[in-house]
Amino acid sequence: MVKSALGLFVSILFLQVGIAQAFAADDASADDVQAKPESSKVVGHKHRVRHHAPVASTSPRQHVTYVHGHRHVAVQRVAYAPAYAVPSVGDQEGLNRTKDDLDLKSSVALVFDESNSQVLLDKNSEVALPIASITKLMTALVVVEAKQDMTEILEITDEDIDREKNSSSRLRPGVRMSRADMMHIALMSSENRAASALGRNYPGGLAAAVAAMNAKAKALGMNDTHYVEPTGLSSQNVASARDLAKLVAAAHQEPLLCQFSTDSRYVVAAGGRELQYANSNHLVSNPTWDILLQKTGYINEAGHCMVMRAMIEGRAIIMVFLDSKGKDSRIADAGRIRKWLEAVKATTAAHLAGAQQAAM
Predict the structure, then answer these.
(1) Phi-psi region of 183 (alpha: psi -120 to 50; beta: other; left: phi over 0)
(2) Is it the case that residue 263 has pLDDT exceeding 70?
(3) 182 and 289 within one domain
(4) Known catalytic residues?
(5) What are phi and psi of 290, to 5 degrees?
(6) 19/178 Cα distance (integer angstroms)
(7) Are 143 and 63 in the same domain?
(8) Is residue 356 domain-resident?
(9) What is the C-alpha to C-alpha distance for residues 300 and 90, in angstroms, rounded to an integer?
(10) CA 97 to CA 89: how far, in whole Å?
(11) Are both 66 and 97 inside the same structural domain?
């Protein structure tokens, strides 16, 4: 009886110690991630920032003991530290500390009115950062401008497998489809192997495709842009938001890029089976949005990125968001920009109406 009671006491003590340690780990981690904000309009130099470990989470675990054949169960909360979050290049530059009036979650943003060439919002737009799969917009642009046969059948090979990020793909080596289908899913659903195949099959091969991408960037005045491959998996593909606004304006001149990038769903035949693809930007399926061209992107070094050309209040607006925190934060930022533009127009209309009444 005494031994049984002693066993139960040890189990309870083990439970209390485990819980205390778990809560202590949570509290310490929560304090660590509290960074002091800084405010600046333009970041013209590199900032050194301290990168903090992610907050540990806790989950219950049962601890079972047997004393003289009797089973005793104690529930212990154990702290698990998630894998260390890789800081983006923008974080390393301190761009995440830049505040703006709309509380955008993107470290870099640019809003441009094409109707009058006016910059409506600028947040770190001059800083060159990794752009992830927004790269594919330039890949598609040089392919279209090369006037390659869109009906030509291309094949996925081992060369198209991602050896850098080890990203997955449903396009197995040996899959064959038209150049148009490859471009369609590369733009709409950010298919990396399809983008790689487009580059490999460019006149002169992959090296010639990358050279053409850099030459086109230079021709467009994208002076902060550099490409090393056609998918965006490499963090060495960099551009500033200002440059990307120029790319969006140029890409919009090609109807095929507009159509492929804004389709909500598409089905391709691949290796005797049908593969369904969905757009990586769910705003294209939202009937309240009129999106004319778009592209999303994400790798750890770049954060979540997005470019769009959309009609808002009768104006063609280009939006660029780089290094956004959270998968849907770039979408939320686009919503904030739209509400802001709608509010500005409403306020301007009210002021004009008041001025006209006063003049009567």
Answers:
(1) alpha
(2) yes
(3) yes
(4) 133, 136, 190
(5) -120, 85
(6) 58
(7) no
(8) no
(9) 10
(10) 13
(11) no
Question: Residue 36: CB partners within 8 Å, gap ≥ 6?
Answer: none
Instruction: Express each pLDDT in 34-87 by its tens digit.
Output: 333 333 333 333 333 333 334 444 444 454 444 455 554 554 444 444 444 679
Query: Tens digits of per-residue pLDDT, 109-132?
Result: 999 999 899 999 999 999 999 999
Domain that holds residue 46: 2-29+37-80
Q: Are 56 and 93 in a shared domain?
A: no
Report CA torsion sign: 119, 123, 128, 132: negative
In the numeric block, which tokens belong to residue 70? Answer: 């009797």
- Amino acid code (one letter) for 217: A
